[in-house]
Amino acid sequence: MAAVAVVAAVVVLPPSAGAAEPGTVGAAGLGDPVFPNLGNGGYDVRSYDVNVAYDAVTRRLRGVVGARARATQTLSRFSLDAAALDIATVRVDGVAAQFTTAGEKLLITPATELAKGRTFLITVVYQADPARIPQPFGGFVPTLDGFATAGQPAAAHAVFPCNDHPSDKAVFTFHITTPPGLVGVANGLMTSSVTNPDGTTTATFTQAAPMATELAQIAVGQFTEVDHGEHRGVRLRDFAPQFEAPVLETALNLTPNQLDWITGQLGDFPFTAYGLLPINGAAAEPFPFNGLETQTLTLYRASFLLQAEDKIGGHMMHELTHSWWGDSVTPRTWADLWLNEGHAEYYALHYRYFRGWTDTYGSTTFDDRMRKVYAKANTWRAESGPVARPSALTLFDSNRYTGGTLVLYALALRVGQATFDRIEHTILTRYRYGNASTEDYITTAVEVSGDKTVAPFLRDWLYGTTVPPMPQRPGWTVDPVPPPPADPKAAARLRAALRTDMRD
User: Fold this and answer.
1) Residue 493: its pLDDT value, please?
2) In this structure, are residues 291 and 311 in contact, taking their beta carbons and an 8 Å threshold?
3) Do 262 and 351 touch, CB atoms closer than 8 A?
4) What is the pTM for the complete model shown?
5) 188 is in which domain, residue-wise?
6) pLDDT of 5
7) Count of domains observed in the chain
8) Are both 443 and 466 inside the same structural domain?
9) By three-state DSSP, how is residue 350 classified?
10) 141 forms bridges with which residues in the sheet?
11) Both 253 and 396 in a single domain?
């Protein structure tokens, strides 16, 4: 196996003139409403250079990560998120730094304090063993011939040390070294592939648009590239398992027409490339979901894509929509997840009924589906909390997905479809490649509609413990909320059902 390349040093900017601030410790946790200990304070990461080498025998990764950051306070010590990683060395601007690990934090003390405003390079040499990470949702998705990564919501730091919070987006370069017969794949576009003297291959991928760490994708396997060329200015390419690519061809060929439809709704595609990464989990590690919106390269369970178009087309549109809602415009905190998932479901359902497909619940129109979702709304709020106030346990319940869609539907009825569309486009333009919060969405909706009463309207829908009346639908009713089950096993079954109830 070729040695992992050491990241080149960057030019360090001198501290600003004036009296130096006393050094303080960067916060080990950003106080996220859902994951308060996730992320780290005191700096802003601008870029990551992630070098990993995969050993097919041990199934471990050796890595060197370079994170270029700017200090937002004078730092005497700071931290990165790192879970179950074996840390060998840490350097700051090429100088050895003291470090220790505590829980899921890598605590770093640089040789000298870092002045506020200074740009500096953190270099961490480490090893990762996917077998040490609990599944599912442990960062790695093991496969028979390698792995893929699934960092959402809080597991990218089990793959590489990072500031693992969606509010700290950065550009990425990946260098993946693999033994003969295996291929390394990552977000963005491949810029080079080099065969090393020992027979290994190092593939380099660049993701030039800012990306949240939870959207990073690193995969190793027997992949083959399926190149669809350029469509609407977007390079369409998939990386499929070599021996399954022919049977997946029908599904992979759906993307161009889907891109035609969604760009008509949301405008130009925000990235230079898009495609699918179908994999199947190892027999002992079942794939925990159908798809995941890792930026520019959506991760998919390959067997899911073998179904007919009317069974997978809506889900594929959901993941494609995430390129705008979630990837380009990323939630500021995990409590803002409804912005991602509510929008992805909103446009996926519109696409389904545009195509004339009956959904799982017997609906053929968006209105009818929303009527059925509305009936469930108080039950979801009682069990899962308000739409914009999830917990770690309820984060991926249906109230963030179709419940979020219901909020958007109500807003469109309140302000009119044309005004709603202007709100959507304003958000996508204003926060392109950045982060938006629930409050940002409310503020923009008020600004674009010119109606201050839209703010309390949206807050009732997003934070209320009971669902408000639906505008223009006086006959719609809500199901009674059933009493909570006393049996713990029944409660667990209910919790699992709420994850998928009334979702596409």
Assistant:
1) 75
2) no
3) yes
4) 0.93
5) 1-18+27-221
6) 41
7) 3
8) yes
9) helix
10) 148
11) no
Tell which wins on pLDDT, 101 or 487. 101
Which two tokens mark 127?
Answer: 């090893």
Q: List, in sequence order, every residue forming a beta bridge with 269; answer none if it has no partner.
A: none
Q: Are residues 384 and 360 in the same domain?
A: yes
| 20-34 tens-digit pLDDT | 678 999 999 999 999
Q: What is the DSSP letter of 393?
A: T
Q: Do 172 and 269 fall within a single domain?
A: no
Percent of the chain residues past pLDDT 70, beyond the cut? 94
The torsion angles phi and psi of 78, rounded to 5 degrees, stand at: -150, 180
- For the record, the structure tokens of 181 come out as 């017969």
> Integer distance in angstroms from the first to the last C-alpha of the chain?
44
CA distance 498 to 469: 22
- pLDDT per residue over 414-437, tens digit each? 999 999 999 999 999 999 999 999
- Measured CA to CA, the distance from residue 384 to residue 465 in angstroms comes to 10
Query: What confidence tens digit (pLDDT) does each residue in 270-312 have?
Result: 999 999 999 987 665 666 789 999 999 999 999 999 999 999 9
Going by pLDDT thresholds of 50, 70 and 90, the confidence category of residue 6 is very low
CB 276 within 8 A of CB 283: no
> What is the distance between the alpha carbons of residues 289 and 150, in angstroms, rounded to a whole number?
10
pLDDT digits (tens, 9 = 90+) for 344-377: 999 999 999 999 999 999 999 999 999 999 999 9
Q: What distance in Å separates the CA atoms of residue 331 and residue 339, rounded to the nearest whole number?
A: 7
Would you list the DSSP string of 439-486? HHHHHHHHHHHT-TTHHHHHHHHHH-SSPPPPTT-TT---PPPPPPPS
Q: Cβ atoms within 10 A of the Cβ of 445, count?
A: 24
Q: Are 211 and 170 in contact (CB under 8 A)?
A: yes
3-state SS string for 93-137: CCEECEEEEECCEEEEECCCCECCCCEEEEEEEEEECHHHCCCCC
- With CA atoms as reference, report the closest residue to 186 among 47, 319, 50, 7: 50
Q: Provide the phi-psi class of 77: left if phi over 0, else alpha when psi is between -120 and 50, else beta.
A: beta
